[in-house]
Amino acid sequence: MSASIRPMRADDLPQVLAVERASFVQPWSEGLFLDELAHADTRTWLVADSEWGIVGFGGLMQNLTDGHILDLAVRPDSRGRGVGRALVSALIERAVELGIHRMTLEVRPSNGVAQRLYEEAGFVSVGRRRGYYEDSDEDAIIMWTGQLSSAEEVGTRERLARRARASLEAFSLEDPPEERLAEGDDLILAVETSCDETAAAVMRGGRELLSSVVASQVRFHARFGGVVPEIASRKHTEAIVAVVSEALDSAGIDLADLTALAVTQGPGLVGALVVGLAYAKGLALATGLPLVGVNHLEGHIFANVLADPDVAPPLVALVVSGGHTSLVHMPSWGVYRTLGSTIDDAAGEAFDKVAKMLGLGYPGGPVLSELAKKGDPKAIRFPRALINTADYDFSLSGLKTAVLTYIRHENAAGREVDAADVAASFQAAVIDVQVAKAVRAVRECGVRTFCLAGGVAANEALRDALTAAFGPLGVLVSVPPLTFCTDNAAMIAAAAHYRLRRGELIGLDAEALPNLALG
Amino acid sequence: MRTVLAFDTATDVIAVGVGRWPEEVEGAPREMLAELELAAFRAANTRLLTSMVELLREISLDVGHLDAVVVGRGPGSFTGVRIGVATAKGLAQGLGVPLYGAGTLDAVAWRFAYHDGLVGVVGDAMRQEVYPALFRCGGGSVERLGRDVVEKPAETAARWAAETGEPLLLAGNGLAKHRDLFAGALRGRVSVAPPEVWAPSGAGLLAAALEALPEAGPGDPGTLLPVYTRLADAEEAEARRLGAEPGRNETGVAGPGPEEAR
Which domains does chain A have, with CATH numbers? Predict the structure, then answer.
């Protein structure tokens, strides 16, 4: 149960080429590798070998006293286990033996994992080479080490070597690698604290949910008729360690088993986000695990992906919750375009406020929806704000005021207000606008999949109206199960899986982004 | 010896310290390895960990060498305190080491452990209020006199004028706004430390936490809480509405509603 670093041989090439092809859009050819191996005077090629075969390799070219790392790749099923670190460490040690003074390399700006590794190894970004990667028209970041003989580089190198030895000794792929390649086998612990739920979840490969823990604070906020940000922040601080411990325990996972950590970076209540982010960064520094920052709205969309394997981009999603109302176009994995969002109140917020006007308590949105079933949606004609505008924005504060005005007017006239009719008519006004805009968005984006997401996705009337509108158009309507509609960390872990695969990481200087936009 | 990292983000200054604690507490020496103070107005979340890593790197350590973590619990900026406490919880849980708390004001007072006499630390509580605490210092030790509270500065000054009859050395970031008020109320027997020593230091945090260690328990990262001294505004308003004195629960832990409590 370990891996070791040794020089590359010609008979390694079939395995090396497989790793190379799995790692790069424009892989090197067999001929190129043979040519490299033939120039042993200036070239050093190493492989990381294990009982599961070759799990990575790297190459170094010597140019007098400069050393240039030419290529470095790790087999997809073996990433996140320190193989890359061990290879870089070994290449630098070899460079020192060869009398090399400084080392350099190029790396893609989009490859955060690699940059982090090279920084750990003492490389510093010094500039860019324009359009270096022709396939994606991306620049290359040029990195250099300092003088390898300097005290600082010696210290960096020794620490790197220590960690590399530990990674190699601990290296293991429990299952046969073939089975793990398809979905990815990353184990992600995600933390979510953007509003009033402290949540943590452990997920394997972006799909297999091992645990999901949600500590709801709702009873601490209920008597104030809404979420009190300061109380939310305090409760997150109290609960976070226990919630994470429970998620790990019920998944049967130890921190040392994890591939990465994930945390909601925004949007949400800033004070609440700060707690989860600070905690996750502390945990990341302690464990050495990469940290993925997830957009909360992206998480809600991934709740659909998690619940239904057929849900895949291109799609349009309507995210409706207590804090958000947004229409999002997702043309492909990881690409988002926010078409429009509310310019004042979120849908869930409006439901809760109208419920309060009708004396239904807090959080009254679900109670209001239940009451609406008994009322006549056409009894009162409330305004449908922005229903005919060309944009995809929503406005709910005018509707809220109209309901309040109606109730006051009826009371003043001495007439009894039929709460069920008010609830049904209010709900119909909200739903009409959302359905109209959702249908137009799906048409204009030319997609065949529509996702409803967020806490308000639990609203039956909204689900029914969307299904009725999209059914005849042959559009797949996806609605996640109730437990994934409201805030949870499983959806954050699912979204993080894709970001991790693209190497999108955040650093220890990451900041909470309360107004983070999607796309 | 145990290698311990301490930090505090309750004020606008990030304080970090690395030191060694003896295995046995009583009378044993302690040692500082490195310290850092960084003015970081509203930037604790972006700068705390990077500056900490840098400090450890300077003394050729990394977090894997740590045997315990100490964090300043406040009182101070609510969000600032939570950044420190939440970071410390993640760090200690991830490392599997104990997490201990130190009072932010205590850490300031420990700067004056060799000043023989009374030291008043005045933390800025915003909204024209302060977090005051009195300490008896001298001979390398510090004794806290009273618990953390939040008060109008005039009330604190009047109280200290009445309760103490000896010279008083003042420190703390609350003096930036209220220095003249304290000087007036404690006329003739007050001196003010220079602003460079108004914030907590890494060494102060380590000393304060070591002093409190015998009563600190096992250092469970899950149970350590900030010291707020105030409830959330919504809860204070509720308590006033119900005609009750707002709860002065030190950790400011929101309880169940009044109905539930009955």
Answer: 3-177 (3.40.630.30), 184-301 (3.30.420.40), 309-479 (3.30.420.40)
